[in-house]
Amino acid sequence: MSNLAVLTSGGDAPGMNAAVRAVVRKALSEGLEVFGVQRGYAGVIDGDFIKLNSSSVSDVIGQGGTFLRSARCDEFRTPAGRKKAAEKLRSKGIENLVVIGGDGSFTGAKLLSEETGINTIGVPATIDNDIACTHDSIGYDTALNTIIDAISKIRDTASSHERAFVIETMGRHAGFLALAAGLAGGAESILVPERKTDVDEVCQTIQKDYEEGKIHSIILVAEGVELEGQRFETNREMNESPAFALSKEISDRTEFEARVTILGHIQRGGAPTGRDRLLASRLGAAAVDRLLAGESNVMVGLVNSQVQASPIKDAIEQEKELDMDLYELSTILS
Amino acid sequence: MSNLAVLTSGGDAPGMNAAVRAVVRKALSEGLEVFGVQRGYAGVIDGDFIKLNSSSVSDVIGQGGTFLRSARCDEFRTPAGRKKAAEKLRSKGIENLVVIGGDGSFTGAKLLSEETGINTIGVPATIDNDIACTHDSIGYDTALNTIIDAISKIRDTASSHERAFVIETMGRHAGFLALAAGLAGGAESILVPERKTDVDEVCQTIQKDYEEGKIHSIILVAEGVELEGQRFETNREMNESPAFALSKEISDRTEFEARVTILGHIQRGGAPTGRDRLLASRLGAAAVDRLLAGESNVMVGLVNSQVQASPIKDAIEQEKELDMDLYELSTILS
Amino acid sequence: MSNLAVLTSGGDAPGMNAAVRAVVRKALSEGLEVFGVQRGYAGVIDGDFIKLNSSSVSDVIGQGGTFLRSARCDEFRTPAGRKKAAEKLRSKGIENLVVIGGDGSFTGAKLLSEETGINTIGVPATIDNDIACTHDSIGYDTALNTIIDAISKIRDTASSHERAFVIETMGRHAGFLALAAGLAGGAESILVPERKTDVDEVCQTIQKDYEEGKIHSIILVAEGVELEGQRFETNREMNESPAFALSKEISDRTEFEARVTILGHIQRGGAPTGRDRLLASRLGAAAVDRLLAGESNVMVGLVNSQVQASPIKDAIEQEKELDMDLYELSTILS
Amino acid sequence: MSNLAVLTSGGDAPGMNAAVRAVVRKALSEGLEVFGVQRGYAGVIDGDFIKLNSSSVSDVIGQGGTFLRSARCDEFRTPAGRKKAAEKLRSKGIENLVVIGGDGSFTGAKLLSEETGINTIGVPATIDNDIACTHDSIGYDTALNTIIDAISKIRDTASSHERAFVIETMGRHAGFLALAAGLAGGAESILVPERKTDVDEVCQTIQKDYEEGKIHSIILVAEGVELEGQRFETNREMNESPAFALSKEISDRTEFEARVTILGHIQRGGAPTGRDRLLASRLGAAAVDRLLAGESNVMVGLVNSQVQASPIKDAIEQEKELDMDLYELSTILS
To answer: Does the keyword Cytoplasm apply (chains A, B, C, D) (predicted)?
Structure first.
């Protein structure tokens, strides 16, 4: 083994640059040549490889986003696309590829490995933290702190005007971010996709808080939440976002006037936290180690505070379960 | 003069607490008794006065929001409501009132002074910075930095995915925040209510940037912007927010894929910046000075870096003009 | 069991308030009465107990420091002092005490339990993270991010002037903070108490970096580091801080001009991060659970991402080892 | 006029990059060629000129430090050095130079203009804000907020342990930073070089606060402060820093135990605030305008909120006075 390539794919996450840096410098220290691929799998198919040296990754450890960029690539979803990708890699003499991304990116890495024999290693990076076989994914800790900072700002104005605020976080299928941010931010209610939400119950809790003298109510809602509740279903169709729908119900059914904040893409940006930089550094270096050990089609993750490799298949197929103890704790402490 | 009351009114702004602190401690140092009014003019009508001492305002200088709270009050908009308010103040022996807020709050202060003889002093606090007779209003500097921080986070993800982002700031009638934040944040385009926006022109600029190799485009839009342009008008009615409308046009008419972020109420919160604390401290103390000098129906502001009092009438009626030189500068530097 | 008391002791750490909040609200939800003790063990001896309810801990989850305050207490180090403390607790009918602090505080909790039969539970909180039987202690994550932020600021000026900067972190006996912050901050060298430091070697590395074109050098030094190296020992006695001593050597023996920054107490303050709030919430609630389960003289900690109780004795006596793999990683990635 | 060169000199300040960006893009928009000089005047003498285009300054508006770097240059302090500098500039056909820096840098710019006829324009950038003929200098606002953030962190730990903290800020000859940060940070005492400090009086105030129940005391001290007071002078010689000297006195003479924090170089770094970016953008563009208008040996500054040019001579020789009203205000509000 004399070289490897590295790419970032899917939604960007803070710490991706730190992971690329770790892959590059670890590989160089092992005497390997390193190529950066621009724009994810699209760049592989286009043969868009850049040789990277140590100074290529100077000062990127603290930068959000990914300097290698990311993009969707429909062509790579086809066997023909993956065949072409492997050919492009091999035309440069590259047999090893580190893929930094989430579920979708790992499916591609798995198929590429199985169909073409290119060695692939996955490094989990997504703010949603919904990847199995690792306790944390890169970017999650930074997004968590970004949301907490937003909650803190909104609480200022919520208290001043004695209002309820519905804050919508990212998370189409997973509530890790909403739950952790809600618990850490002291939110009065937290709604996650993993748990059915009864709008009646939420409104009753908020009204009870009002009657007991709370001067604000913060409700964290993951974007993928499905709302239910008798009086609610009738006007659901008029609203696309659960946050707006819930806000209307709260204004109608409690004495709080409710407002909505959709946090959106600010959750993806920002300088990575210490945790995300450490995680990215460890996993990036471990990916190189796994390739040197002759492995492929595996993902490196953090399990019981130790770096551990698992089959990519498991990372994709196993469901990562939300810790419902944390959910219970949030209802006790709020 | 032996006492005064102080209230915060209208939308909350970072630094309101620092202004209350300055009013309280300056008044105490002059031997006056100080009453805090809860929930703005509603609290005056309800006679909701709390005696404040020096430790009532300990550690509030750095807190966002307003611990005196704020609220709308329809009753105070009527002469009868204001008469009642004056009676409640006088029943406590209070003849002097400091009003910390924006345009709407000042209209109330002016009428209260003129109709009932209560001495009122306005202290300008609104993140919009749209109040005349002062260069800055309390809260503007903090909001400016909050928006810049958000732009910086969004730029990370915009560059990673080579996207355009339309970021909507507060500002229904004024573009001060959007212009300053856009210029300081290095936005590619800035849309303000004070200047007619040609959607064709905006899209052409963005497309030109794309062709010249820019890998992202950040467009700052004040919420009060009105869009126009030939191809645009036909579907305007389907969109309520100018940001969403503009985003659709950009995605349709340029090679950038566009996304929207509505910053919303995070712009109102957060620990006040140094500038906002200094401004609030100076204006709060000056309000007490003006009352002691026997003035009423005036607003204290910062003019040419000096504290200066102006008739509230002027602050309300004069239009504060956006500095179009800054606008021109933004087009040169982006 | 009908009640418990809670105190914070030793050096303050961000997240202590979040831990107190969790203890209080969890205990209330279990029907217990809760007393807060002011100023650590001194307050126990003085009988300084305040009844706490749910609103006593409103809005404290995001506040640095400890609203219960902390203090040294020489009297409690004596058997007589601890006897008096137990008497004071029992005079209020209190048999259960949650102690939030570090090593020294836990020694007191252990002796109090063994000598007087008061049930004690330790909750680990110290930015140094040097407590065994838990992967993280409360406050460590926040301090880590504070240091990284400082490194980032200093790198700006270091690069501008092509200088070396020696940054001294807290850590008299342990290098956890310095190592993690140095790795995450991209420091060129990291000096920790756990590993003997050869000043010659450090200077050679820095000079080599200079010759290879690095325009700055950041050296992280834990305050407890002992320096050695032939040319260095002669003038060691003149310097109290390892940072100043090392800085002089670097200026003398490399082409970089060196400067020193002692981060000091800013490392203890600030709003706790998401991680610290979550950890504090979990451990605080777990402390109440352990008391309800009839346990005493144990510490709750996070082991393999799960809450786990260990004898306080183990937490005090076992040495928590620095992960030397991380140290090796730092030399590869810098 | 067909081109210009730009350099940064002296201590770095946040916003220097934003100023360079404004000079570059404004000049390009006027059809001029732009050269960046590396490492201040040393780079001029070495002929170290790099042609800059619009993308040379992409994404630098938010970066601390200066990408053009800065350095001391003894040779430029001699007439021979300046003659050589002018020759190097003219050998490239450059007759115009924008100098971004402080007092020392402006002295060089003035002499260069007078002795060699090179047109020079000064842009004030120093966190100390001690330059006359401008209300603010670039970097001051960012440093102010950095110090306030540090005060806030230290207050957490000061309150927890009921301590006094002496915080030393930059400012060898000027107290602008210490005064503004102290006032905005709610410091109990502020010591500035412009005002003689009586240590007896400071200690008495602190002791009085203690007796009135304050649980902490924050004392801001500019590094250039000279202490006096009868009991103090005897041991002055043992201490180099006024902060350590004062801390010892406070511990000896009040019931507070005192600690010291020297903020040091973190005050120079960090992403510039909105104000600093706007100021830098306006002044950088104005510098190009002044050159195009045929001016030389002037500094552009902000006077009464408007950009204004003044002779460099005035900027250097006039003393910028500290606003003692702010000082008085700080004693009333603390």
So the answer is: yes
